[in-house]
Amino acid sequence: VGGDVTATPESDDNEYLCPVTIGGQTLNLDFDSGSSDLWVFSTSTPSSEQQSHTIYNPAKSSTFKELNGFTWQISYGDGSGASGTVGTDTVTVGGLTVKNQAVELATAVSSEFVTDSANNGLLGLAWSNLNTVEPTQQQTFFANAGPQLQQNVFTADLRHDQPGSYDFGFIDTSKFQGNLNYVPVDNSQGFWQFTVDGYAVGDGATGGNSFSAIADTGTTLLLLDDNIVSDYYSQISSAQNSNSAGGFVFDCTEDVPDLTLQIGDYAAVVPGSLLNFSQNGDGTCFGGIQSDGGQGFAILGDVFLKAQFTVFDQGNVQLGFAPK
Ligand SMILES: O=C(CNCCc1c[nH]c2ccccc12)Nc1scc(-c2ccccc2)c1C(=O)NCc1ccccc1
Predict the structure, then answer these.
(1) Considering Cα of 124, then 66, then 108, then 130, what sign does the dihedral take?
(2) Is the pLDDT of residue 264 over 90?
(3) Is the CB–ligand 1 distance for residue 299 below 6 Å?
(4) Which residues does residue 103 pair with via DSSP β-bridges, in sequence order?
(5) How does DSSP classify residue 256?
(6) Phi and psi (nearest 5°) for 272?
(7) Is the ipTM of this complex over 0.95?
(8) In the predicted model, what is the mean pLDDT of residues 203-218?
(9) CA–CA dist 178, 243 (Å, integer)
């Protein structure tokens, strides 16, 4: 048994949305390997915050069950967040069905989500120890689906400005070139966390110290240690760290170098074309590489994942990468 679902990029590849059916109602959700809550806009969300979102109505689902007294509250590094109550329902993704999946109903949502009308909630794909439900932590959709999957994996094939896909339970070898390169994952903090052994800017030599990183489909950009960010932008003459733009920008006419991350034996190349992320409208462009804010680990978000085919292997607690 498995599932294949289309991941459609929002403008500027800011996020990727996938159709999810909950109790017979279909909503587009943001699949997020950097968090572990499945939460949705619902009839419990204040009408002023429902705006143009598709909402889930548990009263219309014959399979919804309230988890009385259960609550959740999540906040993200950009200051956004949401909170609410919890129930269970039957959740289907690309033909793969999980019964009694914890579905978290938002009773409060921050403005970043209210104004993002394409996003009707998140489907967390990190490890369940990151789930925020109290008093009893809940399992993710992927954790619950694991036992019924042919292979206990999901794969991400995100693309620039065109639909990609997530597959659950199988590896479609037509979606990548060559062989998969696996690295061990440390899931003790709940993330798909692994070690990067070095980096190279453009066709420069691979150097630098090894560092921790997470594979995070829910973060748009490639967030790295300040030293690497400075080294990278030192190769772009017009680059500057702009407070008004919220990060490093450069002239759109510039030739933007590739970045290569050495992951074990695998040289993961992020082409310069993906590192010129978006136009600011004034002749400057916003970089796909930005600071990780001193997190202690790098966040390899969609900018990185667009350039690789990635296997999230729950059974063997490892990640696999291959070029596309
Ligand atoms: O939270 C996730 C994945 N879900 C994102 C859901 C989401 C959050 N706004 C959204 C808006 C739209 C759609 C989804 C989301 N990843 C991680 S791990 C560590 C940090 C972190 C912690 C502290 C400081 C920095 C990062 C984050 C983080 O905050 N990323 C989002 C972000 C967003 C903007 C800038 C940096 C990081």
Answers:
(1) negative
(2) yes
(3) yes
(4) 87
(5) P
(6) -55, -30
(7) yes
(8) 97
(9) 42
| Stated pTM of the model | 0.98
Residue in 12, 18, 76 to alter for ligand 1 test, most ligand atoms within 8 A of Cβ: 76
Q: Which pLDDT score, from 0 to 100, does residue 51 have? A: 87
Residue-wise pLDDT for 122-148, tens only, equals 999 999 999 999 999 999 999 999 999
Candidates 283, 104, 297, 288; CA nearest to 195 is 297
295 pocket-lining for ligand 1 (C-beta < 6 Å): yes
Determine the Cα–Cα distance for residues 137 and 57; give it in Å rounded to an integer.
23
What mean pLDDT value characterizes the chain? 98
Active site residue 282: no
Distance CA 127, CA 130 (A): 6
What's the rounded Cα separation, in Å, for the pair 301 and 307? Answer: 11
Catalytic residue selected from 32, 37, 89, 167? 32
Report which of 250, 206, 230 is spatially closest to residue 290, judged by C-alpha positions: 230
Ligand 1 site, residue 120, Cβ cutoff 6 A: no
CA distances to 130, 150, 187, 268 from 316, rounded to whole Å, are 19, 14, 11, 21
pLDDT by residue (tens digit) across 279-294?
A: 999 999 999 999 999 9
